[in-house]
Write a structure and sequence with these properties.
The complex is a heterodimer of chains A (167) and B (414). Chain A has three helices and seven strands, in the order αββαββββαβ. Chain A is α/β, with parallel strands linked by helices. Chains A and B meet through strand 3 and helix 3 of A and helix 1, helix 8, strand 8, strand 9 and strand 10 of B.
């Protein structure tokens, strides 16, 4: 199945909820509404014509100027059909929660935890949604958001500057 | 703690055995053990909380992040060229392959084709890096579970290749030899000679490693049937590399999505059957032989030619011209101070590093810096399956499993 066929098949199956499909540099990226995300993912996972059995990564992008600020990105691969697809959805900042896909791909567990840790997007029905790379008691926010400064928030500024030349 | 109120079992004294009533009632409960972050066998700073019933693992919870340096955030602040040295520090025992994976991703974003000779050079060095990685793995994994001998032999031969890297790019571990669009410098005749010598020297040494381990009954007993994962589970967890192929899943990006000079070489992808630690070991040893084969073929097929794509707006000028030619100097200066103008869009590009699929997902909105760069690190994904794979085994098997993933925390925590 070519990427175009794949995109149109998805568009036919999910007329409501399908936002757009972009093909660029040989990658197919399909955007769906977050209400249909789990359904589309289940279709990609279970349908024998799709058979995307391998989860590659889960990622997130912050677009602070957009109304729906965060983008959650899933990338799947089909080991039998040698095909990739990127599934994306957008969530607003006021209610940033999407359905977890851990019931379909077990590997989504750690990957979604990382997205939660770094971007603050929560996953509904995730078995163990805690911070993963940062400490559990980290309170400075979510570091990969665009409004998080590169130098971090706070604790570096509390270091006292010792002037070695003043002695 | 949440565990205290549950599972407290009391062994009852058996009335059928007279005399046993004099024994005190034995109370057993689950034990919580913190392993790491300072533990010599956790390959860096990994902490795992083990829930034990006797010596059996009931549950293990990896606690990651002790080596988190925010590399993905740093990437957003530098140009594409400036990120190459950061990739060295991801999987710090296999810097070349990280450079390779990253440069390939940026080349896909910029739609650059690499010249033939550069492709061969890249493939040769990448395969040398695979040998280095597997040697490192072989030594440390056996050392972790008590077979000390092979460590010295693997590291003796590893030293030859590290010196070779030193001569190639001036660094043994943090190499930064790959460039976007090509490589930094060509092989010298002395490097070629040394490499050919090594290729003759090395295969008998692999047989030596194998004898060391497979004649060691303790080592065999501790790897065969330990850490078994079924093919379906391995795919569902997103495992990759030898960890996935150990379960018999034929997924190798060098074959599935051929890149660089791999399609021009003949090699086979070894597959395991049982999905246990021994099969994963066997695959890595076979890959050593395959790597030697690939390097030999590349050396035979390689022709003279440019080693850098000629796209002045993106690729760097040759170093000697930077010092003698004004335009080249301006080009170099502009590329490093402002970067090149990437088209808006997003790509994912995966590369088969020796640990598994190392991928870069880059989102660009135009301009010289990536808008978002996500690293798909195999070590991190493998840790996701750790709990599943250790359940029911002994504490000592947890160590075998760390080793069997070939985990490096620099890459896992990023």
């Amino acid at each position: 199945m070519s990427l175009q066929q794949l995109a149109s098949r998805l568009q036919e199956t999910f007329a409501i909820g399908f936002v757009k499909a972009v093909e660029w540099r040989g990658d197919l990226a399909v955007t769906v509404t977050r209400e249909r995300l789990h359904e589309v993912a289940q279709f990609l996972h279970d349908d024998p014509a799709m058979d995307f059995d391998y989860i590659v990564h889960v990622s997130s992008v912050d677009w602070p100027d957009d109304e729906e600020r965060f983008e959650v990105v899933y990338e799947f691969y089909s080991i039998k059909k040698h095909q990739r697809i990127r599934l994306k959805t957008r969530v607003p900042e006021s209610d940033c929660i999407v359905d977890s896909l851990t019931d379909l791909w077990k590997g989504a567990d750690f990957m979604e935890r990382e997205v939660y840790d770094m971007m603050g997007i929560r996953f509904r029905h995730h078995p163990d949604l805690r911070r993963i790379l940062l400490p559990d008691d980290y309170t400075e926010g979510y570091p990969l958001r665009k409004d998080f400064p590169l130098r971090g928030k706070g604790w570096r500024d509390t270091f006292e500057f010792l002037d070695e030349t003043a002695r | 703690m949440a565990f205290e109120d549950q599972r407290t079992t009391v062994y009852k004294v058996d009335p059928a055995h007279p005399g046993s009533e004099t024994l005190p009632t034995l109370r057993t409960e689950e034990l919580l053990l913190n392993m790491g972050p300072q533990h010599p066998a956790t390959h860096g700073v990994l902490k795992v909380i083990l829930e034990l019933e006797g010596e059996r693992l009931v549950k293990s919870t990896p606690v990651l992040g002790y080596l988190h340096r925010g590399v993905e955030k740093l990437a957003e602040d530098g140009t594409y060229h400036q990120f190459i040295p950061h990739t060295d520090r991801l999987d710090y025992v296999c810097a070349m392959y990280n450079n390779f994976a990253y440069c390939r991703a940026v080349e896909k974003l910029m739609d650059i084709t690499v010249p033939d000779r550069a492709d061969y050079l890249r493939t040769i060095v990448a395969e040398i890096q695979r040998i280095l990685g597997h040697q490192f793995w072989l030594g440390t994994q056996a050392l972790d579970i008590g077979a000390m001998g092979v460590f010295f032999y693997a590291f003796r031969d590893r030293e030859i290749l590290l010196d070779w890297f030193d001569e190639l790019c001036g660094a043994r571990l943090t190499t930064s030899w790959y460039r976007i669009g090509g490589v930094e410098r060509d092989f010298t005749p002395s490097l070629l000679d040394k490499l050919k010598q090594f290729l003759d020297y090395f295969p008998p040494k692999i047989d030596e490693y194998v004898v060391f381990l497979e004649k060691n009954r303790i080592w065999v007993a501790r790897t065969k049937g330990v850490g078994v994962i079924s093919a379906d589970d391995a795919v569902s967890f997103g495992l990759s590399g030898p960890t996935l192929r150990g379960s018999g899943v034929d997924y190798d990006l060098r074959k599935a999505e051929p890149y660089s000079a791999y399609p021009k070489c003949e090699f086979s992808v070894p597959l395991g059957k049982n999905g246990d630690t021994y099969d994963r070991y066997w695959i890595r040893v076979q890959e050593l032989y395959e790597s030697v084969k690939i390097i030999r073929q590349c050396l035979e097929q390689m022709q003279d030619g440019p080693i850098m794509a000629d796209v002045p707006s993106v690729t760097l000028p040759p170093k000697q011209r930077v010092f003698t030619n004004l335009e080249s100097m301006i080009q170099q200066f502009k590329l490093f101070s402002q970067g090149f103008d990437a088209p808006p869009g997003e790509i994912y590009c995966g590369t088969e590093a020796h640990k598994g699929e190392l991928g870069f997902y880059i989102v660009s909105t135009g301009g010289g810096k990536p808008y978002r760069l996500k690293i798909r690190a195999p070590s991190f994904v493998h840790m996701g399956a750790f709990d599943h794979m250790t359940r029911g085994y002994m504490i000592s098997d947890a160590i075998t499993l760390f080793g069997s993933y070939d985990i490096v925390m620099g890459e896992c925590d990023r």
